[in-house]
Every structure is written in structure tokens, then in C-alpha cells.
Specification:
Layout lengths: L1 E5 L6 H10 L3 E6 L6 H5 L3 E4 L16 E4 L3 E2 L6 H22 L3 E5 L27 H16 L6 E6 L1 E3 L6 H10 L5 E3 L4 E6 H13 L6 E4 L2 E4 H11 L6 E4 L1 H14 L11 H7 L8 H7 L6 H16 L16 E2 L1
Parallel strand pairs: 1-2, 1-4, 2-3, 4-6, 6-7, 7-11, 8-10, 9-13
Antiparallel strand pairs: 5-14, 10-12
Length: about 350
Amino acid sequence: MRAFVTGGTGLVGRPLVEALLQKNWEVAVLTRAPTRAKDLEARGARIVHGDVTRPGFEAAMARADVVFHAAGWLELGIRDVQRMFDVNLLGTRNVLAMARQQGVGRFVFTSTAGVFAPTPKERPATESSPVQVALSDPYVTSKVQAHQLVVKEMGRDLPVTIVLPAAVFGAHDTGQLGRSLALLVRGKLPRLPKGFGTNTWTHAEDIAEGHILAATRGRPGQLYLLGDRILPLAEFYADAARAVGVKPPTANVPMGIARFAARFSEARVRLSDRTPLLSRAALALAAVDLVVDASKARRELGWSPHPFEERLRETMEWYATTYRDRKVPPPIKPDGRLGTRT
């Protein structure tokens, strides 16, 4: 089997590429920064230098049995709204058009369960839940619009399947969660805001396996939610702290004070090309409940994530090994911006 993967160096894309290679797939990886994919190239992946916002790499996907479109920009509170829509919406439109032009056998799109948020514990999201915009933010809006674009594509001639992960954790996370876990293992995250919501947590490697199952066992025209352990955000951090023997943070900071700190963080970077360490949008999204019912993926795909406690322990051991030394800078994108764009 031959796969073409966009976003192959990201939090979800990298373990997806690694899993495909382990299963002896031929894998081509699209990346804006080939140096970030040297380890994947050494393991047998073919590296394609390109950007989803700039068509021109269609010949590289010509032989693909499956295109996995996992590229996206995850960042909250940004000021460059146009760039966010270019990556998440225009990029998706471009990859869809090229896959259709090349007649690929399957197209698997990485959406997000967040398109259904808010979904509280008593009303978990299913694949038939209504799409909503949880808050007015360029990331959220662009992902909802990209999701809707791909859903419309399902009625055309390209065999499309959509995978919708909930909260993803794992090694190599350059986003807000990764930075906070790096601080946690250093004992530098003693307090959290009150009022954070409940999410459905799943390890990136289990999400990657869900993608492969969606391509090989899933049905075209179907959506598959992927989510494992339902936990309030504060409990997730407490469990993560205990996994590496550090004191769990206390959720006792009033949300009003946290928003004031976020406003100050935003003001500090207003004249630069950077995004804030903490934004009001990130706080707002963290307060939203996202509880999902992944029984369809378990039933139809045979998806069975590894034990949550084992995955969390492995993840936190990686963060401890990588970031406990305070001389090591916290996770940050190679281009110097915060956030996760792949």
C-alpha cells in the first residue's frame, strides 16, 4: 500500500507516518521543512518539499492508494487571520482538488471532535451531532469550515472518510499542552485557573492507528470520532503530575485573573510576529466541555486504544527526560512562533 501524508511531522502526523512504515507501507510525506523529517526519511519515507497552501505537488501523490490529510495549524488567539484560513481551509481545498485530479483510492481527513463542541458528559457527541462553532476564533472557525468542505466532498466522486480526534496528547507537542507539560515536569506549573472543562483524552499513537483503520476498514462517506478517557482538564494535569512524581497543580486561580494575565500576554507580543504564551481564546476553549462517544470507531473499525494510564506514563516520562533540565528551552515551533502548524 502507498500513502501520501500531509502534516507528517506534527503531533498526529508523525506517529501516523511511523505506524505506516512499521506496517510496510510506502510513505510520501509532504513538509514545508524537510530538515524536520530527516529521521522519517532515514526510516524509508519519501520526503516531498511543499506547502498545502501552494499547489504543485500533485505528481507526488499520483501513485497513492490513500491520501491522509493531517496538516493543519492549531493555534489560538492569533492575529494573522488570513494565514490561518489559508492553511486550514484553502490548504484542505487544495489537497482535495489534487487528490481528485490524481484519482487516489481513498482520502482520509483529520478533522476535530471540536466541531461538535460544546458537548457535556450527559450529552456526548456522536458522528451525527450538529456542527457548532464553540467560540469566535480563527482556528475554531477555519476548522469548522474545513470540516464542512470535506463533508460536502463526500457526495462527489472522491472516496472520503473523516476522522475526528478529541483531545490529543503525546510526545513532541509544540502547542499549549506540550508547553504546559514541560513546565509541569519542572515543577513550574503549581496553579491552574478554576473553571476548566472536561475533555476526552487519547494518545497520538492511538489516534494514528485510528487513521489507518479508517483507511483500511472504514467506509467512504463516514465519520469516525476518536476519544478514550473522559477527564476534566484539571484531573488530566493531576494524573500527569503523579505519573512523574511531581506535585499536582491546584486549580484555584479565578478565571477573571487568568483572563487578565492572558490580556497582558497578548499585549506583550502585539508588535511582533509571535503569538502569546497565554491567550483569552485558549482559556475560553479550555473551559468548553468536549465529551465524545467513540463506540462507532470501536465497533466498525475495531479501534482499541492502549490503556490510558500506560500511555500517560510513557508520555510524561518523555517530557521528564526531555525538559526536566531547565537549560532546555520549552517546546516551540522551529520558525519561532508558538502553536502547532505542520
